Amino acid sequence: MDFLRYAEQSAALLNADLHDVDALQAHLADRPWLSEQATDRDCMLLRKLQRELRPVFEASEAGDTTGVVAGLNELMARHPVSPRITDHDGTLHVHVASRGASVAELLVGEALLGLMTLVCDLGPSRLGVCAAAPCTQVYVDTSPNKSRRYCSERCSSRANVAAYRARQKAVATL
């Protein structure tokens, strides 16, 4: 089980537009065995998780360790995860939900277990909200020096170009 990947997937899940089953299936395109099981109820539950999980990323961005920990603990209490060891493909590994779990239950379990592990291993300051206005996407910072500020290269480039143009304009008006 790659908890870091699960933490990063939680940010992708939070950023995803899950307005209907087709949108959820598109989000799960790299996991066709889950995509084909997606339902309207999964979409509803995942949209609720998005609303509940966003404050955890915002607390991290604000440097509020207590908010991050309390938020994750509250979500873990509301969405208990039941990890299981399995060897269905010949190797021992962990699944975060029992067989028969819904798509939403599986994704919620992966997200919360991934974020909980990330916060314990790397610290609560590794979650963030993109610094490029007007973007509001979230990200998981896995950089060695905790330097990530943007959700994507696109937002980073856009912010850097805007800052460059602002500096050029300031020099030109002198």
UniProtKB/TrEMBL annotation:
Q: Which organism is it from?
A: Nocardioides abyssi
SUPFAM superfamilies reported in the protein's UniProt record: Jann2411-like (SSF160904)
Q: Which InterPro entries match?
A: ABATE, ABATE_dom_sf, Znf_CGNR
The residue ranges of the Zinc finger CGNR domain are 126-168
This chain's protein is named: CGNR zinc finger domain-containing protein
